[in-house]
Amino acid sequence: MRWRKAMDPTAATAPDVPGVGEIDAGSLPSGLAVRLADWQAAGLIGADTASRIAAFEAARHRPRLPAALAILGFFAVALGIIAIVAANWDAIPIALRLGLHVALNLALGVAAWVWYRGQGEGMPRFRLEGALLLLSLSTLALIAHIGQSFQLQGDLSGLLGFWLLLVTPFTILVVRAPLHRWLWLLGLGCWLGSVLSDHWLSLHEWRLSGSAIMLCFAALYALRALPPPVDPGWTRHVGRASAGTLVATTSFVLLVLRPLLQETPPPEAVTDASIAAGIGFVAIAAAHALVPADRVGLRRGVGLLLALSPGLAVLPFMLEGTAAAIITGILFCLYWIAIAKMALVAHRPGLFKLAVALIALRVFVVYLDATGGLLATGFGLIIGGLVLLGLALGARRVMEWGDRLAAPAEEKP
Description:
The chain is mostly helical. The protein has 16 helices and no strands. Helix 11 packs parallel to helix 13 (297-314).
């Protein structure tokens, strides 16, 4: 079996598995040959299946060096053109600069349209995604170019708002590439932040700055409910990004921000945050309920956890001293215990392991706070090391337990 011997040095003494055929290891993706051999040896696949998988992957696997060299060549040419244009920018008439930029946008739009129409005829999708990404970036640059050329007065919120107005229709309806989706979400977040910054003083005067942030987040989370023809991948992407941002922000506040702040914030700030927590609970719960499938079962619990997140982040700031430290640690552990439980039920072992690791980290931080200057001694370092080893062993045992619970019924002993 040539492909296994070429990829695995220990395969020279191993018996060949019949049926794979003479497939050159260099034509297979890295690591696939060894995995196929292991799967056959474990009885997961038969010889015919392994042969078909190897033949399929060998047929579509192509050397990447020529493509990489071509990309580097195009990149070098583009850098050269940019350098020449930048060096002679003032010498180029405004009409010519804007005309070329508009022509570039039109060319990208036509190319995207042609490649979009050709999707049903086997046209590679990466061409369409590349053209749409370049069109989106070029549109943003064109808006800034027009403002710079005619010395138009404006702010960041106006620039991003106009850009979103132009690119959102084709981005939502056509784009599938994660990079482009993240770019759009980043632009939307920057626009919302810029709008809030423009009105921050007025909002803060009325104790509504935090509430405005919560409403913006809930509106973004509500985009999950967009109906067809919006691609379902878009709704999943927005939902995961929103939920991940909320969980990460709450965890950061409980794990890092509140322990670092020794003093209680001013009363007006606490009032603002408390109002925001209440409005955030209602708004996030309502946004979660817009999707009928999220109103029952485990997903309803996920929505409740997300809706409670703003309140959990605000509560420690209402306390002082030791009580604040204890409540912060307890809330963080309970928060991630709930996430770990949901991850087990949803068969998400990666998320479960992350929750266990973060809880172990928080417990160790509590130990550091409790020991204080003891760690400056050799005896204290030994105790700290033993605590770390104990936490590592305990976390590993809990992760293994979670893996056993998440395993399919037929695989359990």
